[in-house]
Amino acid sequence: MAMTRDEVYAKVQQVLEDALGVDADEVKPDAALVDDLGMESIDALDIVFRLEKAFGIKIPRGELFPENLPELMQDQRFVVDGKITPDGMAELKKRMPFADLGPLEANPTVEQAKRLLNVGAVVSYVQSKLP
Amino acid sequence: MRWIWIDKFLEFQPRQSATALKNLSLAEDHLHDLYPAFPIAPHSLIIEGMAQTAGILVGQARDFSEKVILAKIGKAKFHRLSRPGETLAFHARVESLNEHGASVAGVVRCGTAADAPLVAEIDLMFSHIDKNLAGMSFPEHNFVFTEQFTQLLKTYTLDRPIQL
User: Fold this and answer.
1) Does any CB of chain A come closer than 8 Å to the CB of residue B79?
2) DSSP state of A82
3) Domain residue extents for chain A
4) Contact between A95 and A71 (Cβ < 8 Å)
5) Which ipTM was obtained for this model?
6) Domain A5-129: which CATH class?
7) What homologous superfamily is domain B8-145 in, according to CATH?
8) pLDDT, tens digit (0-9, with 9 covering 90-100), for A36-80
9) CA of A107, closest CA in chain B: separation in Å?
10) Would strands B118-128 and B68-78 be described as parallel, antiparallel, or unpaired?
11) Most B CBs within 10 Å, among A20, A45, A58, A67, to test the B interface
């Protein structure tokens, strides 16, 4: 039987607690991995390994943690005066189809874009990989 | 001094597991550094011993073509002190391995028996730095796996009486 979102969430929460050394109450659905939970670049590989083991899935390179996002945020096709352009929005949607773009569409800033990779997005990504 | 904290491999299953031994000797200066008149093996160097055991296991998996560095200590839980005269057995098991790095679960025991006293549980993560630190430049040669480490694997296969 397929896992419920709550079941996936509980396991993701444990993975993030172990990988990032944070407390359970810090791992909220809208908590941004970098800004709120202190994720560093090397933690990405750790999280990938732990998710693969916890859920028995394979996570291809760059799928959960898209590469070159900082460079994308410097690209004038995608960002003008700190605001994400429609092309930038489309690019983010393409690279992170599992992320909830609602808050970013309401506030299309680079700062808000950094929050796309949050706990809820990881849960949605894992759900998309499960049978 | 040679920065090497394991003496020999006892078992080596490529891409899967390895066991290495370290004999603790009263003649080693670092055993005397923590407490006067009470020599013990520093926990930090026990972690280093596991890192060397597991690091060689991870490096061999790609024929030592990657520069493998210790990226993260996921867990280091110590259960007892280790003293001169004891033999530490570092058991490393690969949990995950891909083009970016590896995670390894480690157990250290005092002695080689399966039920030998548990010294520590040490989980480590390794990174292939050329893959993960794109844009940074590192020396072309593999500065991680020097001759003194690769020699350990060579002597592992030569563990038989030497004819004089």
Assistant:
1) no
2) T
3) 5-129
4) no
5) 0.80
6) mainly alpha
7) Hotdog Thioesterase (3.10.129.10)
8) 999 998 899 999 999 999 999 999 988 999 888 878 888 888 999
9) 32
10) antiparallel
11) A45
